[in-house]
Amino acid sequence: MMVSATRFAARAVLAGAALLPIAAGATPNNAQPVYSDAAALGKLMFFDASLSASGKMSCASCHSPSHAYGPPNGLAAQFGGPDMHRQGTRAVPSLRYVLNRTPMWSHAQAASLSERLSETDNAPVGGFGWDGRFNQLHDQASFPLFNPNEMANRDPAAVLAKLERAPYAARFREVFGQNIFADRTKAFAQAMAAIERFELEDPSFHPYTSKFDYYLDGKVQLTAQELRGKKLFDSPTGGNCASCHIDQVGVDGSHPLFTDFNFQALGVPRNPELRANADPKYFDMGLCGPLRTDQSGDKSNCGLF
């Protein structure tokens, strides 16, 4: 499929505008990152299994730092719940490079941003999660806490009760106020914001240490073979990969993540390893549910992830 330069530029702007610039390489090798107070608390919570109903699952259980913040195994979906025997319904995505993106745009909103985008590519874009239902990282961080297949807490009060008993509870009060737990809504919001700050401030979430990143920074040169590959990758009459997998720096100078953040219908078959698929009436339709329902009015969204 041919892609015009104008259309490519519009898509690059959409992708580039969705990235928050991070000072890649600001922390020397083997040096400990310097966190804000909130991020330091967020790190403690990220690794705290006591915040789950089972007492055995933390954020890091599924988002392992030694596995690019993805799952530490090859399971189709991870197990959790109060007894750690409940299987999730979707594969766990990596949290690496989850920078602050824009909120999810609908078909109409995406079209209004660039009238030059073709109808075939006029899909929703943005957001976090396979169905984009979270517009900020702190919103996404709360979902596993209450998912019955994951950390399985009953409600925010249950999480806060655990936080008040945590070894770092006194530090939480020092950072957010001695009476922070008196305002349950504010306390929970601050806890989720702290996890967000950890994900944004820790360089291991966004290392930008590939050879291609170094090439963009002018630190290394690509080989002749690699340059031929890049030319094919970028060419509208060649591989045309870059029409979706943006490899240009963002408008703010941020490094590319090789995505335009669009939702796509991949059409993969049912995975028999997922227990949910044993029910012939169960279908995971992405934007159309079952976890998200606000986009189901537009049937063209069904099956998009």
Task: Sum this structure up briefly.
With 305 residues, the chain is an all-alpha fold. Helix content is 32%, strand content 1%. β1 and β2 form a beta hairpin.
Using DSSP, what is the number of strands? Answer: 2
Q: Give the averaged pLDDT, no decimals.
A: 86
Main-sheet strand order equals: 1-2
**Secondary-structure-derived class:** mainly alpha
Largest sheet: 2 strands, antiparallel
> What separation lies between the terminal Cα atoms?
21 Å
Strand content: under 5%
Question: What fraction, in percent, of the residue positions are helical?
Answer: 25-40%
The ordered H/E elements are HHHEEHHHHHHH
Rg, Å, rounded: 21 Å
By DSSP (H or I, 4+ residues per run), the number of helices equals 10
Low-pLDDT runs: 1-28, 113-120
Shape: globular
What does this structure look like?
With 305 residues, this protein is mainly alpha-helical. It has helices at 5-17, 37-46, 59-62, 107-113, 137-146, 156-165, 169-176, 184-201, 211-216, 224-234; strands at 79-80, 86-87. Strands 1-2 form a two-stranded antiparallel ribbon. Strand 1 (79-80) and strand 2 (86-87) form a beta hairpin. Helix 2 packs across helix 8 (184-201), helix 5 (137-146) packs across helix 8 (184-201) and helix 6 (156-165) crosses helix 8. The longest helix has 18 residues, at 184-201. The two termini are 21 Å apart. Mean pLDDT is 86; it is low at 1-28 and 113-120.
